[in-house]
Amino acid sequence: MRLLLVEDDNHVAAALSAVLARHGFAVTHARSGEEALQALVPEGAGFGVVLLDLGLPDQDGYEVCGKIRKRTSTPVIMVTARADVRSRIHGLNLGADDYVVKPYDTGELLARIHAVARRAVPDDAATPGDDALHLGPVRIELPTRQVSVDGSVVQLTRKEFDLLALLAQRPGVVFRREQIISEVWRTSWEGTGRTLEVHVASLRSKLRMPALIETVRGVGYRLVAPAA
After folding, report:
1. How far apart are CA 207 and CA 35, in angstroms?
2. Whereabouts does the entry annotate DNA binding, in residue ranges (predicted)?
């Protein structure tokens, strides 16, 4: 996923960019509000998320958020030291999708980035008027929880379906193991890692598409959308 990091402190930006890169993000760094707005032309410029620091040198971060929302529907996460409720409400009213207060835990920030990104289902994964995800020969019907490959229904367990649906909503995005465990199994990573590996192996086998789910060593998994 491409991520626009709007941060005027070069040292903070460099450290955060390194962390994000290790988790599969392609980071573009903007040092001011105007630079951020230019980077989002045209129509969001393909960014999956904007990480917006409010303390910018040229414009108030809230003002920048409002301008971003007028130009694109790209999810925006505000990052600021302002922890009061009124500031958070103001940011959300301007169109921010989430609000992270400094100092923050990196794991929480990554989880919030993935969460807001998943809410914006990509155009190539969903057909208008159809509650299904289409990924090459794979069709995932969300309401009925039915999966088919080339028209043939594949029987999946509840957790197998949840895992596949999670990955399929953001093809190409790397999901951390901890995040998958939290969202699919609703528990912590400890002691559950082997369960995840087994379910991934089972999905690859049942779908007869071993390359569909790619292992990103040391990080997690991502779904590689096959050709139609």
Report:
1. 45
2. 130-225
pTM: 0.56
Look up residue 46 and give its two tokens: 């393909």
Model confidence at 43, pLDDT cuts 50, 70, 90, reads: low
Under 8 Å CB-to-CB from 100, ≥6 apart: which residues?
Answer: 77, 78, 79, 80, 108, 109, 112
Convert the pLDDT of each residue in 201-224 to its tens digit: 999 999 999 999 999 988 899 999
Euclidean distance between CA atoms 33 and 65, whole angstroms: 9
Is the omega angle on the peptide bond into residue 103 within 30 degrees of 0, that is, cis? Answer: yes
Token readout for 220 is 């997690």
What's the residue count for the chain? 228
CA nearest 4: which of 15, 38, 22? Answer: 38
Query: How far, in Å, CA of 56 to CA of 110, rounded?
Result: 22
